[in-house]
Design goal:
The protein is an alpha/beta fold. It folds into two domains: 146 residues, Rossmann fold, CATH 3.40.50.1970; 164 residues, Dehydroquinate synthase-like - alpha domain (Dehydroquinate synthase-like, alpha domain, Up-down Bundle). 41% of the residues lie in helices and 20% in strands. It is built from twelve helices and eleven strands. A hairpin with a 2-residue loop joins strand 10 and strand 11. Helix 3 crosses helix 4. The radius of gyration is 20 Å and the shape is globular.
């Protein structure tokens, strides 16, 4: 079945967001409470607010939100505007996909993490008993609005969350963008000006969103190339569950471990592997696992990327080039014992 294609819009100011919203539609907004006040100044529609937390990605929250939509008279002709980070996007996308067997929805990602990753590609999901994204479906938003002004309202920790995902995208597909992004953030190049505000990252956000969007168009249901976007995530999801780290922190460590594993398997040069880990540390991102990689084994074997007796790892052959590399469970256990 062909997946619908999301239209991407970009703007610099929150006040410009209404320019992209169809005036003739009946609209309800589902928003993270942190951005409610900013959006209510420009969007004059009924609002439902939610707290962005992994605990809210569950059946209980879906039931509560469904009842609120019913109270507001939402029907099959309603357009749901979902504004917030990746968690709110997951919940809102799942809700829109299942309410009356599916209504249209738009995403307004408000964090760096959601702008470079979660808002693109149509994945929606909820958690079950602490296991991330076990139940979900593919249903892209009808359109997505990226606004750079949100970035200058974010604490540094939330910026760091998104940097790991942005660099991941460049590591697997665009060496030049990766090198330039690192340089403008840490000020390491005489040819590129160091950024002074995080909204100045917007050209890189646009590039990352375009890379992911193009991959999704070619492989909408993750049968092949789209799996590359999971770079760092098999390690990352296990670290996130076992150690209680945030998604961005866990993915950053997952990228470092994937680089180390790629070097160990002689896929990636040691110099490139060292550079990736050095760059992560220079950006203030974590690159060392709180637990020995061998302790991640049991959780990793429950990862949704497991296929029979193997896990499809995403590893690196170079900066800007990733591959799908199946590892049997038995071989993985041995490799993790020797990995640092």
């Amino acid at each position: 079945m062909e997946m619908k294609e999301t239209v991407l819009f970009y703007c610099k100011k929150i006040k410009d967001i209404p320019d992209f919203i169809p005036a003739e539609r009946r609209i309800i907004v589902l928003a993270d409470f942190k951005v409610e006040s900013a959006l209510k100044r420009v969007l004059h529609f009924p609002f439902i607010t939610i707290e962005s937390s992994e605990e809210n990605k569950c059946f209980r929250t879906l039931e509560e939100l469904t009842l609120k939509l019913m109270d507001l008279g939402a029907d099959r002709g309603t357009l749901l505007l979902v504004a917030g980070g990746g968690i709110v996007g997951d919940i809102g996308g799942f809700l829109a996909s299942t309410y009356y067997r599916g209504i249209d929805y738009c995403l307004i990602p408000t964090t760096l993490l959601s702008q470079v990753d979660a808002s693109i590609g149509g994945k929606t999901a909820i958690n079950v008993k602490g296991f991330k994204n076990i139940l979900g479906l593919f249903n892209p938003s009808n359109f997505t609005i990226f606004c750079s002004e949100f970035l200058d309202t974010l604490p540094r920790k939330q910026i760091d969350e998104g940097l790991a995902e942005m660099l991941k995208t460049f590591l697997l597909a665009d060496k030049v963008a990766y090198l330039d992004a690192v340089d403008v953030i840490i000020g390491g190049s005489p040819h590129l000006k160091k950024i002074s505000t995080f909204s100045e990252l917007f050209p890189f956000i646009k590039r990352a969103s375009e890379i992911k969007s193009d991959i999704v168009k070619r492989d909408p249901y993750e049968k092949g190339e789209r799996k590359l976007l999971n770079l760092g995530h098999t390690f990352g999801h296990a670290i996130e569950k076992l150690c209680g780290l945030s998604h961005g922190e866990a993915v950053s460590i997952g990228i470092a471990l994937s680089a180390n594993l790629s070097v160990k398997l002689r896929l990636l040069s040691k110099s490139d592997g060292n550079k990736i880990i050095r760059d992560l540390k220079s950006l203030g991102l974590p690159a060392e696992s709180p637990v020995h990689p061998s302790e991640l084994f049991e959780t990793m074997t429950k990862d949704k990327k497991k296929d029979g007796e193997a896990i499809q790892f995403i590893l690196l052959e170079g900066i800007g080039k990733a591959i799908i590399y199946p590892l049997t469970i038995e071989r993985l256990k041995g490799l993790l014992n020797d990995l640092s």
